[in-house]
């Protein structure tokens, strides 16, 4: 059963209103849901507390910090329970919920539908029933926009016997770059060990011009473009500043604040900020159906509903976008990636793969820290934006080993810190090794 949690407006006191939609039926009276970001935990908001918990807590999980983490998780759980109680209190919604409850929610798909950036940024993955626990572990949860054009068409020439991924690892700030996570290593390990018919190319050099050239040279080839690097927003665009200079026609994207940071094709670590709408237009032109964003702030929003990279790409016509709402630590990625891609390869369905990866993270919560193992709830970090679900990716079966495009010099990662405090070698004429700079945390 597909149930939409549809945002319809605001109440007199400013709270967002929602209805539950089931096909052509919907609940009659919109219900108000309080924003989780307005919840205070001491002197900090839940938004601040959640970011601290997911990105900093493991650095020092002791004493008062452990108590603070428990307070954040308790507030988050309470909000999730309050949402479910409010959303499914009306008679029709309650009946739909009970029907799915009888089937243990195995066929339930929840879509969060809104054009409001704040609403899309809420941690909907923590929706929780007092009787049935976390819904995200049992059903599909995805976000989508309500007012949007058609998704890009799927080329009939895309290979169906194997899955092709173009991997972009951008480190534009050299030795001063911050500690980014990368999902490359666990993905490559999983593909190679399982013998999956998956081809992975690494974009060398990681520039926007090179991306355009590679997509032009390989039409109807790539199913997924995976970006690992900086992302974010900038509301102060100008036709003469920043990334508005290097690319023709870029002025047309003035005012679009979602961006990804590629590298410039020079001998320095130079950033090249590309509007997400411009990237989305390129991917749409070449009928790329899916993008995976392993980028800082790639799923976070400002007041503009199309401000984030993920939403900007969706608006441009990309069918599905997998994004990390917060930084993902090494162990979390090692747990999530194999299960996510194994399910994706088998089912060819992003929502199914997200649920599988999330459940695996929930079932393997223990994380190593300097003070020993502690439980850690990072299963809520991966989020899915999707406009079209059918027929995007091929279903695969494991077989003989397949060689990936990742340089063999990729070293073993430790168990601490965010994944991949790394920088590609700056040799532009040959495949470069990946140098491990160290681990953060």
Structure description:
By secondary structure, the chain is an alpha/beta fold. The protein has two domains: 2-144; 163-438, Rossmann fold, CATH 3.40.50. Helices cover 28% and strands 24% of the residues. The longest helix has 25 residues, at 63-87. The protein is globular, with a radius of gyration of 21 Å.
Salient structural properties:
alpha/beta; Rossmann fold; 2 domains; eight-stranded mixed beta sheet; six-stranded mixed beta sheet; 22 strands; globular
Distinct helical segment count:
10
Provide the number of structural domains: 2
**Average pLDDT for all residues:** 81
How would you sum up the global shape? globular
Distance between the termini: 43 Å
């Amino acid at each position: 059963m597909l149930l939409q949690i549809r945002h319809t407006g605001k109440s007199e006191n400013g709270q967002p209103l929602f209805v539950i939609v089931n096909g052509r039926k919907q609940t009659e009276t919109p219900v108000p849901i309080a924003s989780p970001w307005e919840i205070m935990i001491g002197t900090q908001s839940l938004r601040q507390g959640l970011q601290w918990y997911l990105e900093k807590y493991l650095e020092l999980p002791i004493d008062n910090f452990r108590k603070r983490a428990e307070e954040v998780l308790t507030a988050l759980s309470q909000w999730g329970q309050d949402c479910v109680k409010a959303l499914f209190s009306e008679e029709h919604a309650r009946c739909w919920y009970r029907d799915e409850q009888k089937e243990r929610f195995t066929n339930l798909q929840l879509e969060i539908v809104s054009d409001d950036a704040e609403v899309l940024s809420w941690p909907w993955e923590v929706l929780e029933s007092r009787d049935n626990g976390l819904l995200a572990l049992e059903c599909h949860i995805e976000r989508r926009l309500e007012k949007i054009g058609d998704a890009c068409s799927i080329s009939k020439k895309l290979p169906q016997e194997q899955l092709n991924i173009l991997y972009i690892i951008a480190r534009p700030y050299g030795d001063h770059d911050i500690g980014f996570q990368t999902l490359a290593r666990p993905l490559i390990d999983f593909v190679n060990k399982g013998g999956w018919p998956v081809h992975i190319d690494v974009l060398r050099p990681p520039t926007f011009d090179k991306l355009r050239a590679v997509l032009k040279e390989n039409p109807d080839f790539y199913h997924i473009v995976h970006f690992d690097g900086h992302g974010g927003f900038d509301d102060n665009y100008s036709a003469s500043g920043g990334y508005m200079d290097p690319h023709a026609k870029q002025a047309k994207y003035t005012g679009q604040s979602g961006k990804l940071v590629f590298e410039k094709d020079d001998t320095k670590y130079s950033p090249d900020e590309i509007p997400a709408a411009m990237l989305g237009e390129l991917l749409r032109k070449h009928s790329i159906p899916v993008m995976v964003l392993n980028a800082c702030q790639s799923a976070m929003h400002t007041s503009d509903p199309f401000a984030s990279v993920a939403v900007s790409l969706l608006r441009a016509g990309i069918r599905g976008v997998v994004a990390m709402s917060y930084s993902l630590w090494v162990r979390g990625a090692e747990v999530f990636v194999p299960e996510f891609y194994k399910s994706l390869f088998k089912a060819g369905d992003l929502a199914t793969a997200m649920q599988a990866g999330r459940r695996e993270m929930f079932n393997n919560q223990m994380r190593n820290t300097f003070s020993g193992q502690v439980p850690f709830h990072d299963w809520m970090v991966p989020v899915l934006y999707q406009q079209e679900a059918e027929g995007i990716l091929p279903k695969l079966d494991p077989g003989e080993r397949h060689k990936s495009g990742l340089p063999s010099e990729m070293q073993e990662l430790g168990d601490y810190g965010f994944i991949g405090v790394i920088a590609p070698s700056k040799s532009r004429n040959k495949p470069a090794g990946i140098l491990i700079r160290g681990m953060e945390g």
